[in-house]
Design brief:
Helices cover about 50% and strands about 15% of the residues. By secondary structure, it is an alpha+beta fold. The strands form 3 sheets. It has a 5-stranded antiparallel β-sheet with strand order 2-1-5-4-3. Bound molecules: adenosine-5'-diphosphate.
Length: about 500
């Protein structure tokens, strides 16, 4: 009862039932009207011929039994046919003579009714529909009553009538129509259920497929090759599954990478503490071990902080406190903060032109974004002749005026094959380059990364309506460029919409 299939079929049958019944009713009513019109025309013709016949009849004619049936004076053919009624009535309503399927009392009743209809006055001519009690049929009759004049005196009335439906067509038509309606509805019900079943079959396939999709296996596809709405639904479903599969795989990879990256520092801490506890050590040895533990701990704190930032950004939970600020200002702050690191790594860190660049942004996050880029440049190009240059400026683009900051280094560069993946989470060009774990003093560890810095920097840039581009070739150094919309172009943009 609740299935769409059944309801569709039922609605189909109900609507078809209404239409077919209305149409059959129309045909039946038309047929009744046609029959009545023909019966009236036939009766008028018979009455006229009878009038002509009676004009020459003698007074005795009305009383003779059996009644001599009147003929058409012109053609000589009998005026009455089987089933017709003829009766002669005295002026007082008494039946003088009658012929046809109705007996004298039936005629008396009929005549009484018709004469009363004229309110006692002499009726001239009247025609009514009547249902006299005739033995074999309950056919309606059309009956005409007219006065009989002989030599200018009215001697009584004649009643002539014929059945509206002499061939008994109407009951047959009614039965045919009712049977026809029921057969049509029966066929429609079966056809409707069959059609609805066919139309709903792909829905069953989709439901079945959805039930078989496991929690971890999203590789299933419907591949429904239909060019209709259900095909569209199945394609949308497949596309959604594909997106979910990619997202699920990314999530799985992310968890695996994060666990993997956390295992190394945890193993180091475990090894170092075991070493410290295995036998008595001198003061210097304990200090070294504690430094290693601290360094690994800092690395983990940094990594977990980065993971949290990414998770919150993915969930849209980060609220950026955007305000108008000078991007050059933020850049200078970052360079000043990282200058000691550059000195430590023997990198010459210099600043080029820094014109005023008003942008709308969150100072803390923009600072983090630029720090990631400058820190990368320092740590990957460290060495005696290494240089890192930071410069800023603005330019007109088709998206409006943009501020840019470039971080240029003359380090090892990035091979072309790695460039498309550089901003992927946990992606590192050369793990051995970054994973030089705690040296004996344990001071290097804080500098190593796990491949999250650029992903975070890119998310921050995108959240500010900007982007990051990189240009690099292996052995040729790298240039990272951040571009953000200038405030002037932001207001021009908001005015234009
Ligand atoms: P990490 O935390 O490992 O530095 P990032 O996401 O910041 O992670 O960088 C991803 C990888 O891109 C790094 O592992 C490094 O191999 C490469 N990379 C980033 N910046 C530079 C650069 N200036 N020069 C050379 N390689 C770089």
């Amino acid at each position: 009862m609740r299935s769409i299939r059944f309801r569709l079929a039922l609605w189909f049958v109900v609507i078809l039932g209404i239409v077919v019944t209305a149409f059959s009713g129309f045909i039946y009513i038309r047929q009744v009207r046609d029959l009545r019109a023909t019966a009236v025309a036939r009766l008028e013709l018979k009455a006229r011929r009878l009038g002509g016949f009676l004009r020459f009849a003698s007074r005795e004619y009305f009383q003779q039994t059996p009644l001599l049936l009147p003929n058409d004076p012109g053609s000589g053919i009998s005026i009455l046919q089987e089933g017709d009624i003829l009766a002669f009535i005295a002026p007082d309503g008494q039946v003088i003579n009658n012929w046809g399927p109705i007996d004298a009392s039936g005629v008396h009743q009929l005549a009484g009714g018709m004469l009363k209809g004229e309110n006692g006055s002499n009726p001239s001519l009247m025609m009514i529909y009547a249902r006299p009690s005739v033995d074999d049929s309950r056919n309606p009759y059309i009956v005409l009553l007219a006065p009989i004049q002989i030599e200018d005196t009215q001697v009584g009335y004649f009643i002539i009538g014929n059945p509206v439906d002499p061939g008994n067509q109407l009951p047959r038509l009614l039965i045919s129509l009712i049977v026809g309606v029921f057969i049509t509805l029966g066929v429609a019900l079966f056809g409707g259920v069959w059609l609805a079943d066919r139309a709903m079959r792909p829905v069953k396939t989709i439901t079945h497929a959805a039930q078989t999709i496991g929690e971890t296996d999203l590789s299933m596809r419907l591949n429904l090759d239909h060019k209709d709405e259900l095909g569209e639904l199945a394609n949308t479903f497949d596309a959604m599954l594909a997106r979910l599969e990619v997202a699920f795989e990314r999530q799985r990879q992310f968890t695996a990478d994060a666990s993997h990256e956390l295992r190394t520092p945890l193993t180091i801490i475990d090894l170092e503490t075991s070493r410290a506890l295995s036998s008595h050590r001198n003061q210097a040895e304990y200090e070294r071990i504690l430094k290693v533990i601290k360094s690994e701990n800092q690395f983990m704190i940094q990594m977990v902080t980065n993971l949290l930032t990414l998770a919150r950004m993915d969930a849209g939970q980060v609220v950026f406190q955007k305000q108008e600020l000078d991007l050059s200002d933020v850049t200078l702050e970052v360079v000043e903060r990282l200058a000691p690191l550059a000195v430590n790594e023997q990198v010459r860190l210099s600043v080029g032109d820094l014109p005023e660049l008003p942008v709308l942004g969150d100072r803390q996050y923009l600072s983090q974004m630029l720090s990631n880029l400058v820190e990368n440049a320092i740590k990957y190009s460290k060495g005696e002749s290494s240089r890192v240059q930071v410069e800023a400026g603005s330019r007109e683009t088709d998206r409006g005026a943009q501020a840019w900051v470039r971080v240029i280094d003359n380090g090892p560069g990035i091979p072309a094959d790695d460039l498309p993946h550089l901003f992927d989470r946990f992606y590192q060009v050369d793990k051995s380059r970054t994973r030089n774990h705690s040296d004996e003093a344990g001071s290097e560890r804080a500098l190593t990364g796990v491949g999250l810095g650029l992903s975070i920097a890119q998310l921050i840039a995108q959240a500010h309506g900007g982007e990051i581009h990189v240009q690099s070739e292996g052995g040729q150094g790298s240039t990272f460029e951040v571009s953000l919309p200038l405030v002037a172009s932001i207001s021009a943009f908001s005015q234009s919409i």
